[in-house]
Design a protein that fits this description.
With 256 residues, the chain is mostly helical. Helix content is 81%, strand content 0%.
């Protein structure tokens, strides 16, 4: 009976001990969710700046979607729209970031986003020609949105400057991508294409975290240029989207 632990006295003591242990376990395992989702390390004025940045980013994505739709209707995307987009970026950096020029710079920013959408329109058009292409585009868009939201949020809730060390790795990764693309002009290797796609996807996911924390530090230092900050995040989003779209389309073709 004692070995089985079922005598009355032992059982009572055992139940009491078990209850106490359960309470201690529950206490130790309780999670302070308010602390988990706290952004107290971000000053209030910086948090408001981030809200402005993300609203501007949302407007840019809407303009890019409109640009892609325009290409699908009129077939105007190509090298000229790409060059025009670069010209708008140059103009955006030339115009001084003062209050009097804010409307002009916003116009240049959203015009660039529109042309960027037009420029990636041919790629999206080719994917739509694949069997189930509309599903691939939708999956890539939703996947990009989830990836962007998750990694940007992780940078917001993480300790300040904890992801800024990624700059060296990300810069080296971009250089590697450029060299891979240059070499593949002559080699024409499908393996290098895959390496470029997956490595590029990882690099720009890293840039989402890096740029988010860099924007925070710039705002704390007094740089409140939400237009350029939104541009940085927009380029991260687009680069993730086109690579994820290419990966999904390539996998669908290989299955077919």
């Amino acid at each position: 009976y004692k070995r089985q632990g079922i005598n009355a006295e032992y059982g009572t003591e055992n139940n009491s001990t078990h209850s106490k242990n359960s309470m201690d376990f529950a206490t130790r395992k309780s999670v302070n969710w308010s602390a988990v989702f706290s952004t107290s390390n971000i000053p209030a004025h910086v948090f408001q700046h981030l809200v402005t940045v993300y609203w501007t980013l949302s407007l840019m994505l809407a303009c890019a979607a409109l640009g892609t739709f325009t290409h699908l209707m009129l077939n105007i995307g190509g090298i000229m729209t790409f060059i025009a987009g670069l010209a708008l970026i140059i103009c955006l950096f030339v115009v001084p970031p003062v209050e009097e020029k804010k409307i002009v710079r916003l116009g240049l920013l959203n015009a660039f986003a529109f042309l960027e959408g037009v420029s990636i329109g041919p790629m999206i058009g080719k994917v739509l020609e694949i069997d189930g292409g509309s599903g691939i585009v939708a999956t890539a868009l939703v996947g990009t949105s989830v990836i962007f939201a998750c990694f940007s949020a992780s940078a917001l809730f993480a300790a300040r400057r904890s992801y800024l060390y990624l700059y060296g790795l990300l810069s080296s990764g971009l250089s590697t991508l450029l060299w891979i693309g240059f070499v593949n002009i002559f080699v024409r290797s499908s393996l290098l294409v895959d390496v470029s796609l997956y490595l590029g996807l990882l690099i720009f996911i890293g840039y989402v975290m890096f740029d988010t924390q860099l924007i925070i530090e710039k705002a704390i230092a007094g740089n409140n240029d939400f237009i350029l900050h939104a541009l940085e995040l927009f380029l991260d989003f687009v680069n993730i989207f086109v690579r994820l779209l290419a990966i999904l389309a390539k996998n669908r073709k290989s299955k077919d």
